[in-house]
TrEMBL record:
Region span, Disordered: 188-220
CC per GO annotation: nucleus
Biased composition (Basic and acidic residues): 208-218
Pfam families: Myb_DNA-binding
Entry's localization field: Nucleus
Record-given protein name: Myb-related protein 123
Source species: Nyssa sinensis
All residue ranges annotated as the Myb-like domain in the record: 9-61, 62-112
Entry keyword Repeat: yes
InterPro entries: Homeodomain-like_sf, Myb_dom, Myb_TF_plants, SANT/Myb
Gene Ontology MF annotations: DNA binding
Amino acid sequence: MGRSPCCAKEGLNRGAWTATEDKILTDYIKVHGEGRWRNLPKKAGLKRCGKSCRLRWLNYLRPDIKRGNISHDEEELIVRLHKLLGNRWSLIAGRLPGRTDNEIKNYWNTNLGKKVHDHHKKKEKMKKSKASLVMTPKMEITRPENESNVVKSKAMKCSKVFFGPQTQNIEPIDTTTVTAAGQSMVQNTSNFTPIPSGSPNGASSSTDLDHDQEDHGSDFMMNVNMGEFCLSDLLNADFIMPK
DNA sequence: AATGACCACAACCGCACTTTA
DNA sequence: CTAAAGTGCGGTTGTGGTCAT
């Protein structure tokens, strides 16, 4: 089915936004509210594509945007949420008040991604040196680098919950609701089992990026009620899938 | 001082999902 | 029910700033 392009490219401004454009957009949204992005530029008198306006507003002009460095706590939270959710930046951003998906994505790509990657490499090295000392055949189950136990991003908004065979005794989770903003919500989060730090299976320290050992549930699809997590929970807990 | 490499981040693009007529 | 419009999301690119040579 043919689709008209989101906006005619001719005669539209591109690139960095000027202060005047910002002001026009902000004023317009203050009066008319968000939404109707496609028509917004025309009505507001902006020579911009609607998408561009939306992005500018969401990532930069919104009054509740928190600017400045990502704190250590936020960083830890991002790492954990990424481990859990993969590249679903909007969901991750939803747990970090004032932060945008774009900001987190950028931060990940420039900082955390590298950190985690390096960390992974270190671990691989250590594993290898250990393995060369004591080598048993079944230890050679390897997984591609960076593979995580997460639902693939862009896979679609999960509205169904699927557990692998080992989870059959789990009570069915309530159906999910998807809000207009695309945030998926699950009413029941009890299927996430937070393991307190220091427990046999848990990571020893919340500052440690090393959570590889929790590669449980690699074949599950589930929705997460992120609305019920809070920062402290996430910082003090690791996630495993129920068995 | 000039310039090339690298980094950070804003903005763009295309696809997929949702809503509407 | 279906097609088209509207919107959101994640990946990628472009650009300005900083650092190293």
